[in-house]
């Protein structure tokens, strides 16, 4: 199937209040252009360098999402253009994003990445750490970042009930954090669900899905 057909197929089955992030990591610019021509405007990448290169080459009305692990010393390479950073896993990173955003006179939307998976290889903070960040004095001083929600990745497993439990856990944490947010209306995004599990994620309350291989085909690393 073509990228356009894959996209249309996914969009037909997506509730209209769920945002689709087309995960284009490792894929050539021509593939992204094909998705763009089919109407897609939100792309997700997991390497800052690669995202910056693609941003240079592609139309400027694309919204770029950083979905991967973020190294603090590389935030400066995306601060001028990134729309949403999904992988904020500690306050130090938030402080650096704020500093770099300020240089460009921007406010960057961020999601707190929560560790829901039962795997050491997955990044993210605990609910307690997220609570601490939302309530801290430091956070209220950061004028160039907006914390707009949470992101999580389920365990890589065939066990659907485990994945479901993890998604429900993230939704529950989101609901609690929303009550602590100084501007609850702004806290509205639950980024969960990938090619293999997004229908389940949506059933559990996801508002944003990150889909790569079901749009662009399998990745060759
Ligand atoms: C690669 C990636 C995805 C997309 O994965 P697919 O299984 O190809 O849909 C989603 N989220 C994150 C954080 C990723 O790194």
From TrEMBL:
GO terms for molecular function: pyridoxal phosphate binding. Residues 3-219 form the Alanine racemase N-terminal domain. Keywords: Pyridoxal phosphate. InterPro entries: Ala_racemase_N, PLP-binding_barrel, PyrdxlP_homeostasis. Its cofactor is pyridoxal 5'-phosphate. Signal peptide: none annotated. Pfam families: Ala_racemase_N (PF01168). The modification N6-(pyridoxal phosphate)lysine is found at residue 25. Pyridoxal 5'-phosphate (PLP)-binding protein, which is involved in PLP homeostasis. Belongs to the pyridoxal phosphate-binding protein YggS/PROSC family. This is Pyridoxal phosphate homeostasis protein. It comes from Formosa agariphila (strain DSM 15362 / KCTC 12365 / LMG 23005 / KMM 3901 / M-2Alg 35-1).
């Amino acid at each position: 199937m073509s990228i356009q057909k894959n996209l249309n197929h996914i969009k037909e089955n997506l509730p209209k209040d769920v945002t689709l992030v087309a995960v284009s990591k490792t894929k050539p610019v021509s593939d992204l252009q094909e998705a763009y021509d089919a109407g897609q405007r939100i792309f997700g990448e997991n390497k800052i360098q690669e995202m910056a290169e693609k941003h240079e080459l592609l139309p400027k009305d694309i919204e770029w999402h950083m979905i991967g692990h973020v190294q603090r010393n590389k935030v400066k390479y995306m601060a001028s253009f990134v729309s949403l950073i999904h992988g904020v896993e500690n306050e130090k990173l938030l402080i650096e994003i704020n500093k770099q955003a300020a240089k460009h006179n921007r406010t960057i939307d961020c999601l707190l990445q929560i560790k829901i998976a039962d795997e050491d290889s997955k990044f993210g903070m605990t609910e307690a750490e997220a609570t601490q960040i939302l309530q801290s004095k430091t956070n209220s001083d950061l004028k160039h970042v907006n914390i707009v929600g949470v992101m999580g990745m389920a365990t890589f497993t065939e066990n659907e009930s485990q994945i479901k439990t993890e998604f429900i856990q993230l939704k529950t944490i989101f609901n609690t954090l929303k009550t602590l947010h100084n501007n609850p209306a702004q806290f509205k995004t639950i980024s969960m669900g990938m090619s293999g599990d997004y229908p389940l994620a949506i059933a559990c309350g996801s508002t944003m899905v990150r889909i790569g291989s079901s749009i662009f085909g399998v990745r060759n690393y």
